[in-house]
Structure formats: structure tokens, C-alpha cells
Amino acid sequence: MALVGIARLASQSPLLEAKRAVQYFEIPTRSILNKTKPNMPFRWTINPYRGCEFGCKYCYARYTHEFMEMDPNDFEDRIYAKAAAGHLLRQELAKIDRRDAIAIGTATDPYQPAERRFERTRSILEVFAKERGWHLGIITKSDLIVRDIDLFKEIARANVFHATLTITTLDVKLARLLEPRAPRPELRLDAVRKLSEAGIVVGVNPNPIMPGITDGERGLDRLAKASRDAGAMTFGGGPLFLMPSAQKVFFPFLESEFPELLPRYRELYARSAYLGRDYKELLAARVRRIRDRYGLASGVIEYKPEVWVEEQGELFE
Ligand code: SF4
């Protein structure tokens, strides 16, 4: 069968580098901004890479490799860096409304190992460092994020900017099982601390919260407290979303590491990738309680960037 669209582009992408089992490619892209469905907290997303080397067992974005006619397991071993990301962004920003929020790293991690070499995320941030008036967020599991603190400071002066570190658990052994190639939880907490000390608005996201694995009140409480102590201002949290492509990796993982949980998961996700309302409400109440205990906010912290305040000052003079 002839490959079409993104599958054809992927099959023709030049190889940038291959190390261990991981191969890196460069893939052309028509646009760098992707519009989200309505009701999302942001209107546009930017993902500088396709595929993610961190290889989290629960990763929902594996389906994006299925578009390229690849196995969900290739998601962590065949990484595609998007070509001309910064150049495309400059052109596309000129066409969209500044009031629409933009999030970087919603499908794949913008600070996965590929970023050390290919710097596609940094090229995106360099564009925003020269812009003003945007609402921008970035989310990652990597302490590599601190490399770009210089750019975050520039961006936050003239745009509303916030960074989020995903930390699913403080248990190092469990994190290694769930997220085999992602930085250890304490490195991520340390990144929260460094971002906060640099004056960047930062939060922690314990997503996805996994039934019977990371949804216990005590574990979430410990995580929220450690996040607050490190300087986090927000603490999100929602249950695991498990599409069939993600189930293909997650269920065999459960079978090997948590066999007693597999029947429950099969039942929970038999009809939908989303969990039922009862569980969602229970979990939402638990997270709300914990957040309140530590004075953490649920979402974006709105603030007036320095440059906006200066401009307002001039207007009133
Ligand atoms: S870091 Fe995010 S994108 Fe990467 S494998 Fe884990 S869940 Fe998927």
C-alpha cells in the first residue's frame, strides 16, 4: 500500500543521528501551531518533536506514530525533530489572535534527550523572547528545562508565562518502572526550585493519576507538599486517559509489574479511554483537598508582566 501524508514524509525523513536503539530524524512540517478542540485551557499547541524517548508506559501520544503507520513501541525509538520550527512559528503567530493561549509540550516532551542536540524547543522560545502579549505555557518531565531560564525570564517580562513539571510520584522505583527514561523525580523537583528562584511562575502536574498506582491520598499529599516546598504555585491533576494504542503498551506492562491490577483496568477501560464519572469526582475532590491544604492553585496564575505594567504607567502619566 502506498504511504500518504505524514506517513510518506516520515518514511522519507533524513536520518539525523542513531544511538543505541533510538534513531533521530528531521521531518518537514506545514505548520508548527496546532489548534486544539474547544473547551481546552489553551487554543494552540506546539510540539517540536514527534515521538518521545522517555517511553512512559501510559503515554497517550503513542497514537501519533500510528498516523505514520508505525508500531506504538516505535514512539520512543524513532524520534522526529520538526524542521524550521522557529521560522514557521514567526510566520504563524502573525495570523492568530494574541488572546488565545498557547501550550508547548502537550503531546511529546519538549525537553526529551533529542533537545540537547537539536534545540528545536529553544528555537521556539527564542521567537517568543522577542514577542509580547502572549499567554504561553510549557510542560515537561525533564530538568533540562532549567537550561532555558534565560529565555523564560525574557518571555515572562512581556508575556504571561508559566512552566509546569510533571511528577507522577516521588517513589524513585515506581517512577523508573512507569517512566523508564525520564529524569528522576528529585531532579524534576530541583528544576521546580530553580525555576521558582529565578522568578518564573511554576507548577507541578501529577498527571496522569493512575488508579491503584498513584491515586492514594498519602502519596499525592507528599507530592503536593514537596512541590509547594520547592516553590510550585499550582498543582493540577486528572485521571489516566488510555486509548487503545496506549493500552497495547500499558496492559502488558501491568501484566508484568502489577498483575493483580490488570483485571480491574480491563474493566475500567472496557468501553472508553476515559474513566467513569464516579471515579473522576472522587479523585477531583481528593486533589482539591490536598491543594487547599498547601495553598496551591489549580491552573494558570494570571499576572501582569513587567512590560505591560510599565506601558500602563506611561499611559496614565
Ligand atoms: S514524557 Fe510525555 S510524551 Fe514523553 S513518553 Fe512520557 S508521557 Fe509520552
Keywords summarizing the entry:
317 residues, four-stranded mixed beta sheet, binds iron/sulfur cluster, seven-stranded mixed beta sheet, single chain, 11 strands, 40% helix, 15% strand, 13 helices, alpha/beta
Determine the fraction of residues in helical runs and give it as a percent range.
Answer: 40-55%
- Main sheet strand line-up: 3-4-7-8-9-10-11
Low-confidence stretches: none
Write down the overall geometry: globular
**Total count of helical runs of at least 4 residues:** 13
Largest sheet report: 7 strands, mixed
| N-to-C span | 68 Å
Counting DSSP E segments of at least 2 residues, the number of strands comes to 11
* Helix-strand topology string: HEEEEEHEHEHHEHEHHEHEHHHH
CA radius of gyration is 20 Å
Would you give an account of this structure?
- By secondary structure, the protein is an alpha/beta fold.
- The chain is 40% helix and 15% strand.
- It has 13 helices and eleven strands.
- It has a seven-stranded mixed β-sheet with strand order 3-4-7-8-9-10-11. The chain has a four-stranded mixed β-sheet with strand order 1-2-6-5, covered by helices on one side.
- It is globular, with a radius of gyration of 20 Å.
- The N and C termini lie far apart (68 Å).
What is the fold's blueprint, element by element?
Elements (H helix, E strand, L loop, with lengths): L4 H8 L2 E5 L2 E6 L6 E2 L8 E3 L2 E2 L12 H4 L11 E5 L2 H9 L8 E3 L9 H5 L1 H9 L6 E6 L8 H10 L1 E7 L5 H7 L6 H13 L3 E5 L11 H14 L3 E2 L8 H14 L4 H7 L8 H17 L12 H11 L1
Parallel strand pairs: 2-6, 4-7, 7-8, 8-9, 9-10, 10-11
Antiparallel strand pairs: 1-2, 3-4, 5-6
The structure holds iron/sulfur cluster (SF4).
